[in-house]
């Protein structure tokens, strides 16, 4: 019943956001200071994935384009999408599945920049489906009927973990997903609140430090080069503020490229906005931060989401992607 209520609430928020996003009123561009710098609010998830924007802000990639980022943490993309549509944020970071679901419901979202991608290495990805030390669960198939922690229901964690189970010959429809923040998953595993968890870094390293193991590279199981998440805005905001959106795109692209080639600085910046212990920084598995989304992987993700019932209609990728 709790899962049903959450699903209905999310759907209602999407509908409300859609109505707000299609309004004819002018979207606020952001707060502009006397020196011409515009502060834009960005909804993010406090995980390794968003290190490039923190790093880009520190290196001045945004400020040299007249932008100052106000980064606001949220639990997942399902919460950030309505936040962008309701003008709480000018930009947001969301897993790809949440954006596909929004677009399929005609919610006017528009991707403006790539976010993060899997490492293309099975068994060495930055997200693992993890179990605690001593767990009898050794393979994805053994997750049948078990409780699995995800940061938001009906998002990329659900889709990818179900695919791992299917590829291992299991019945993915029997999984029971439990919603909680990433930074609470290690404790939930230890306390037997859940049997497994969707843990991107730094949660992955935290679980492993406690003796837990990864039984699947679930993002890899969807596609070795999976586009896991992207930065987006509302269609209306993009239309009304094209120059500001262009500046954000350019600064984010520069930030992604810099992060991809400066792993030591990535590890340093992650410690400033997550609870990762300094002793685990060197153990973090870093993702890839390519400049462009991988469309083929997004198409595959959409197929799986539709098969799982997360999507009733196929999303319009031409309308969604840059």
Describe this entry's structure for a reader.
The protein has 322 residues and is of the alpha/beta class. 40% of the residues lie in helices and 19% in strands. It starts with a helix and ends with a helix. Mean pLDDT is 90; it is low at 1-25. It is found in: Periplasm. It holds the Pfam family NMT1.
Structure keywords:
322 residues; D-Maltodextrin-Binding Protein, domain 2; 6-stranded mixed beta sheet; 5-stranded mixed beta sheet; 13 helices; disordered N terminus; Solute-binding_3/MltF_N; SsuA/THI5; signal; ABC transporter substrate-binding protein
* N to C succession of SSEs: HEEHEHEHEEEHEHEHEHEHHHHH
Structural class, please?
alpha/beta
| CATH fold topology of the largest domain | D-Maltodextrin-Binding Protein, domain 2
Q: How would you sum up the global shape?
A: globular
> Would you tell me the overall average pLDDT?
90
Q: Radius of gyration, rounded?
A: 19 Å
**How many helix segments?**
13
Q: Stretches where pLDDT falls below 50 for ≥5 residues? A: 1-25
Strand residues, percent: 15-25%
List the domain count as a whole number: 2
């Amino acid at each position: 019943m709790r899962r049903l209520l959450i699903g209905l609430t999310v759907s209602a928020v999407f509908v409300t956001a859609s109505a707000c996003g299609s309004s004819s009123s002018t979207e606020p561009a952001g707060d502009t200071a006397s020196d011409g710098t515009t502060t834009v609010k960005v909804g993010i998830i406090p995980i390794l994935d968003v290190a490039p924007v923190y790093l880009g802000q520190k290196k001045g990639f945004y400020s040299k384009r007249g932008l100052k980022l106000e980064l606001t943490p949220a639990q997942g993309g399902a919460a950030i999408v309505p936040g962008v549509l309701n003008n709480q944020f000018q930009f947001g970071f969301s897993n790809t599945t949440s954006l596909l679901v929004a677009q399929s419901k005609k919610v006017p979202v528009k991707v403006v920049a790539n976010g993060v991608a899997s490492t293309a290495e099975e068994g060495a990805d930055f997200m693992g489906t993890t179990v605690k030390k001593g767990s009898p669960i050794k393979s994805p198939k053994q997750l049948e009927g078990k409780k699995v922690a995800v940061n938001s229901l009906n998002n990329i964690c659900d889709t990818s973990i179900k695919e791992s189970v299917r590829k291992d010959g299991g019945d993915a429809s029997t999984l029971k997903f439990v919603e909680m923040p990433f930074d609470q998953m290690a404790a939930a595993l230890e306390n037997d609140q859940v049997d497994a968890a969707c843990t991107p870094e730094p949660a992955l390293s935290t679980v492993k430090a406690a003796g837990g193991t990864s039984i699947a590279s679930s993002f890899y199981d969807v596609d070795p080069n999976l586009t896991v998440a992207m930065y987006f805005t509302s269609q209306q905001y993009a239309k009304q503020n094209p120059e500001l959106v262009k500046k954000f795109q350019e600064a984010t692209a520069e930030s992604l490229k810099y992060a991809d080639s400066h792993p030591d600085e990535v590890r340093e910046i992650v410690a400033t906005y997550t609870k990762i212990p300094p002793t685990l920084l060197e153990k973090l598995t870093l993702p890839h931060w390519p400049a462009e989304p991988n469309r083929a992987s997004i198409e595959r993700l959409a197929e799986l989401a539709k098969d799982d019932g997360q999507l009733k209609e196929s999303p319009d990728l031409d309308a969604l992607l840059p």
